[in-house]
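Let's practice the habit of predicting before peeking. Look at the sequence and jot down your guess about where helices and strands might fall. Then scroll down.
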Amino acid sequence: MKKNRFCSATVLFAFTLSSSAWLQAANFAKPFIEKLNTSIQRVTAFVNVNIVPMDSDRILPNQTVLVQNGKISAIASAKEIKIPQGALKINGKGKYLMPGLVDMHFHLPGPKEKPEIIEAYLFFFVANGVTTVRSTIGQQNHIEIREKVKSRKLFGPTLYLACPPLRDDSIKTPQQAREFVQRYKTQGYDLIKNYGLSDSAAYEAAALAARETGLTFFGHVSKRIGIQRTLTLGQSVEHLHGYYNEVEADSTKLNALAEATKKREIWNCPTQFWEEYLCERNLDTFLAYEGVRYMPRKVVEKWVQSKKEDFQKYSGDTAEYPKRLAIGRQIIKALHDAGAGLVVGSDSPGRFRIPGFAIYGEMRAFSRAGLKPYEILVCATRNAAEYLKELDHSGTIEVGKQADLILLDANPLENMNNVLKRAGVMLNGAWFTKQELEKGIKYYSKFIE
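Done guessing? Here is the structure:
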């Protein structure tokens, strides 16, 4: 009896601590949410700023951008435009304004995760200029989170939600595949996630059902289905699944495969940063990842210890790592050169891979694959908007588009790392300074476990 009472008391104490932490996090977020709600009624002007419109590889110098009702309402030469009285003026002299970034591979936590950790992840995204996120494994709490963000009750980026993944253990017939797709469409998910279905008939039924419902079909590629069948049925691909097998077997197939991907208009989200993470053997490299310096010391120490254990456990596999990384880079470059669609996804959260920050690891991985700064930024902005069927509303800086913007202290087209030199971020027309966001990062980091 005493033991049961002790266990009950322990659980209650832990629950109380978590509830208290969540209330603290919610209270901290109130000013950010209030700004989202009040800024919608106010005009904001970026004055004398250099625009990086992302419609082509160019800079529009000395422009003024007006924002109202969460949209870009006017763009003109700083000398030609009249700024309304009472507008919030942001000095853009010597600075660069670009569209917000999009992370296309994030795992939004499920209902078992502490709410303050979920809030922290969402905040980290915005603080890093990531204003739109695609969550790739659906869970039952996700739609509620998305709706809270939409209604400005929760601070975070725009969310696009994949359904719970279609797996072999739950889908064994074409009829089941169609039923699952329709169910997830009715429940309000934005995309259908394939987690490597291997039955050909069930896979085809899922792909066709997704097309009929108007939902994007994306995910993994099982060896049994293969990349050629995947391309034929119009599934977009995560992790370059299927490509590795083909190229490892015969590298001469790569260019033809890239051309076929372009012809079928298939998108790829390579998550090459994840591959680099798996192959990395230097602990100092992990410690230098973006955002790690903000994390609690005990958390980082735990990550370091777990990686040391991984090194010992998988010590015999290291010879293949450089070869696999090289193949991944070749695939990314071939797809890009063929004109096939690429988007940027961090595959976070995970040890050392912190949501919001980790997108820069993937962008650098694209750079190591041979892409130039502008080409990488296209993948992280305009391409993502096109993939999400939102290019009319986001992805570039144009009148009428969503005011999700990053103000930088240096030109990102000269050096991609300049995207890290943020003066502030605009989310849905609300302006947040670097200082505000830095304060939030430091605050929310304490909740990471």
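How did you do? The domain at 100-399 is CATH 3.20.20.140 (TIM Barrel).
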